[in-house]
Amino acid sequence: MSYIQEKNVRDETIQLLTELLPVLRAILGISQEEIAQYIGISRQTYCALELKKRQISWNTFLSLFLFFISNEKTYELLKTKKGYIAQVYGMLQYESGEKSVQYPQGFENKQ
Questions:
Q1: Cα–Cα distance between 43 and 82 in angstroms, integer?
Q2: Are 102 and 96 in contact (CB under 8 A)?
Q3: Domain CATH number, residue 29
Q4: pLDDT exceeding 90 applies to what percent of the chain?
Q5: Spatial distance between the Cα atoms of 20 and 39, rounded to a whole number of angstroms
Q6: Are the beta carbons of 43 and 35 closer than 8 angstroms?
Q7: Domain range spanning residue 49?
Q8: Which tens digit of pLDDT belongs to each residue from 28-61?
Q9: How far is residue 26's CA from residue 20's CA, in Å, rounded to a whole number?
Q10: pTM score, two decimals?
């Protein structure tokens, strides 16, 4: 995959999570302050992300993604977005002749 194609996929992946932020947070019943503390950003930054006034960086995206897939309730919602979780894992795969990074053991059965 070319750099441009990879960037487009990454941007689409981030965009979908951005759209879902308010819903995912509501499902967990936590405040913007709480989620910001969990992922290591300020409440103001998180609020700007949720209101789409600021674009989510790749590192913040990964923190949010891991936070939400680690919670059963929000994992179920993300799982309904067909191929979304696998797509993110696919972007994180490192290849040097053979795959060096793989799904966590047992995770592939959840999809």
A1: 30
A2: no
A3: 1.10.260.40
A4: 59
A5: 16
A6: no
A7: 3-110
A8: 999 999 999 999 999 999 999 999 999 999 999 9
A9: 10
A10: 0.78
